[in-house]
Known about the structure:
Blueprint: H1 11-14, H2 20-30, E1 36-39, E2 42-48, E3 53-61, E4 66-74, H3 82-95, E5 100-104, E6 109-117, H4 126-152, H5 157-171
Antiparallel strand pairs: 1-2, 2-3, 3-4, 4-6, 5-6
Amino acid sequence: xxxxxxxxTSAAARGRNMHPVDVIEQLADGHGWSFERIMRDxxxxxxxxxxxxxxxxxxxLEEHETLHLSCAFHINVPLMRVAELVxxxxxxxxxxxxxxxxxxxQTEQVMYRQTLLLSGGLHPTDAQIKTLLMTALDACEAxxxxxxxxxxxxxxxxxxxxxxxxxxxxxx
Length: 172
């Protein structure tokens, strides 16, 4: 069952005079950020974190009028620890106000994802893009150690999260 509030219109009809990924490209270029325009609807970059590189992608989903951000890092999880990593991500997700984490077993990536709704022809602002990006990087930096703890030890999800939070607070 779906609700309908009227017919969907094209981007041009809604008054969007610039592609949302073009806005991100201009912002990235203006800040001297290294990026790659994968296709019309996607831009990607790699950002060095304190312990690992993060792979960032912004994707425009026209049919939903949303800008999707993913921030992923590679982590080689032994098969017997995958369930505990997924449990850890569920615990982390319970505490997040924005976005969520997933584990993509096929590519061995933990991925933070968040979406910005831009219906009605809206454009993303510099502040919104920076906030999306910083929220993703902060979340990944804050929880990478817990993910690493699951892989490198026999800690439970609760213990890995506690240890990682303790380390983070100890380094603050």
